[in-house]
Amino acid sequence: MLDFTVAIPTYNGANKLPLVLEKLGLQINTENISWEIIVVDNNSNDNTSEIVQNYQSLCSEIVPIKYLFEPEQGAAFARLKAVQEAKGAYIGFLDDDVLPDQNWVSAAYSFFQAHPQAGAVGGQIHGDFEVEPPPEYRRVYPFLSIREHGSKPLLFEPNRLNLPTTASLVVSKKAWDESVPSRPTLVGRVGKSMLGAEDYELLLYIHKKGWEIWYNPEMESYHKIPAHRLERDYLLSLSRACGLPTYFLLAINAKSWEKPILFMRTLLGNSRRIILHLIKYGGRVRTDLIPAFELEFFWSSLLSPFYSFYQLQKK
């Protein structure tokens, strides 16, 4: 077994992968770490495989790169494929548009050595914007996988859905194998569906088994955000996709008798948030994008129990 695997799920990522692979080829302090890179092609129709083949020959002396093909669409299936094939005791997931700092691998590996109960560790993810957004957009940064929680390590609070994102996340293979089912309910954004939160689902299973989930500020990376992800249609779809799985996620670690209470708290809590939001912003929720985004999230969270019962339970 190796010490570490970097897994990159990608769909039509031929134009993005070179930057990620180049950053991984420049990692420092890995002399005493045995590691590998796995690229999981999630049914791409571009020249992703050719790009990986080129880097396999270029980087073979630095770190081995393995190419895998996963035909079932969905980021969750690509990650499952990576875990099945990974030889590392720890698996670092990177999205194909997230660039790791030069010590990302070593910082992650060192943190796990110091925290044996850690099942998953997320780091700082900074925004690398094609077009710099106005200051008020900081309120939606977490939905864009931008996470900056300060300079000190801290434990996340999974029961409050306070969790890192798999855009830049390292998991213990042992914790994953003990916790994550062979086929998750949430699979990621497929086709026209923007439904996300598949990363939160797997982390909640890991937490349920008693593993800790940490924030390590030494693991820094940069998420490239193209201009279209700041546009109204994209952001409102993203808000809806993040709100609809809320009840399902909260219920993962709830006992049977707690679920009716959770159902009512989800309805009443989000109803209150909607009322207060409308009082605060009034007609601006129709014209100002950030208040509109927040209102869409509250509405979707309000509807999430019904979505869970009538859509997710069918899968």
Describe this structure in words.
The chain is an alpha/beta fold. It has 2 domains: 2-230, Spore Coat Polysaccharide Biosynthesis Protein SpsA, Chain A (Alpha-Beta Complex); 234-314. The chain contains 10 helices and 9 strands. It has helices at residues 17-25, 48-59, 75-85, 104-114, 173-179, 198-208, 232-243, 246-252, 259-281, 289-310, and strands at 2-10, 35-41, 65-69, 88-94, 98-100, 118-129, 154-155, 168-172, 212-225. Strands 1, 2, 3, 4, 5, 6, 7, 8 and 9 form a 9-stranded mixed sheet that branches. The longest helix is centred in the last third of the chain and has 23 residues, at 259-281. The chain is globular and about 60 Å long. The protein starts with a strand and ends in a 5-residue tail after the last helix.
